[in-house]
């Protein structure tokens, strides 16, 4: 008996003007007018996160149609990567061109959820542009990779407000992709793809050719 094919749903794709209109195309800094470029993007069922060249993160809540803005303190630099996570709390990790990484724990109106915006910084390890970020499903682990091949593991304790970071792997070429599941970190660089087993701290290359 032939299986019944699921119905095909046609959707129309169009620019998200409601989102783009909430982000300025230029900002004024003293006497200078600076063009704002959109540099990073991530989405989930709750949010659309957009990074910019002026160091501002624009976070659009899809449920209440509201845009919020978050930024790094200190000097303004381009955001190169953003990664959202919805677990018990809503989290967004942000990486910049100079290697700064920050985690924002978002405010939720739901009972028992986080009521105050908090930020955690991964500082002093990355010295170059962040090219990849990956969360564990429970939000307790964050992996960050940069264009010099460094991969940093950050352990987050959201209840205590603590973030401890350490260098776990260093590759000879830029990190282009990270994904984490079940104590295994998938790493893709410009030269190879590998599996990093976080408990054993061992590496298994995928394939034999560069």
TrEMBL record:
> What InterPro entries does UniProt report for this protein, alphabetically?
WD40/YVTN_repeat-like_dom_sf (IPR015943), WD40_repeat_dom_sf (IPR036322), WD40_rpt (IPR001680)
Kindly list any coiled-coil regions of this protein: none
Gene3D superfamilies attached to this UniProt entry: YVTN repeat-like/Quinoprotein amine dehydrogenase
Assigned GO CC terms:
cytoplasm
Q: Name one GO biological process term.
A: protein exit from endoplasmic reticulum
Do you know which Pfam families this protein is assigned to?
A: WD40
The identity of this protein, by name, is TCPR2 protein
Species name for this entry? Polioptila caerulea
């Amino acid at each position: 008996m032939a299986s019944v094919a699921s119905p095909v749903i046609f959707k129309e794709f169009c620019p998200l003007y409601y989102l783009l209109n909430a982000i300025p195309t230029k900002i004024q800094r003293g006497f200078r007018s600076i063009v704002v470029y959109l540099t990073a993007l991530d989405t989930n069922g709750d949010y659309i996160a957009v990074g910019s060249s002026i160091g501002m993160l624009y976070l659009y809540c899809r449920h209440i149609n509201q845009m919020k803005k978050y930024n790094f303190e200190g000097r303004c630099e381009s955001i190169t990567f953003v990664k959202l996570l919805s677990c018990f709390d809503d989290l967004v990790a942000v990486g910049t061109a100079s290697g700064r990484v920050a985690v924002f724990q978002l405010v939720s109106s739901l009972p028992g959820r986080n009521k105050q915006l908090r930020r955690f910084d991964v500082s002093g390890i990355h010295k170059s542009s962040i090219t990849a970020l990956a969360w564990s499903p429970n939000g307790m682990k964050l992996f960050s990779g940069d264009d010099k091949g460094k991969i940093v593991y950050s352990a987050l304790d959201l209840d205590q407000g603590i973030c401890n970071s350490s260098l776990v792997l260093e590759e000879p070429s830029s990190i282009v992709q990270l994904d984490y599941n079940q104590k295994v970190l998938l790493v893709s660089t410009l030269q190879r793809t590998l599996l990093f087993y976080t408990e054993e701290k061992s590496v298994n290359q995928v394939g034999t050719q560069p």
